[in-house]
Amino acid sequence: MSRKPKKDKAKEAAKLTACAATGAAIGGGVAATVGGMGLAVGGTAFAIGAAPVVAAGAVFGLAARGLKKAFD
Fold this sequence. Notes:
Blueprint: H1 6-34, E1 37-41, E2 44-48, H2 50-71
Antiparallel strand pairs: 1-2
């Protein structure tokens, strides 16, 4: 089992952080553009704020990084 040098680990961490931040920024943009969102199920409805949309954007950013890495 080979170990990566600390410099490589730091680069990978920086790339992951950048992908998460980019995704979160896109999620924030979507939340600001769409505005008040809600979810209606079975006669009930509740609001979805910006925080879950920003978090979902960060997750999608990390997923995109994982897909890119898988195909490299």
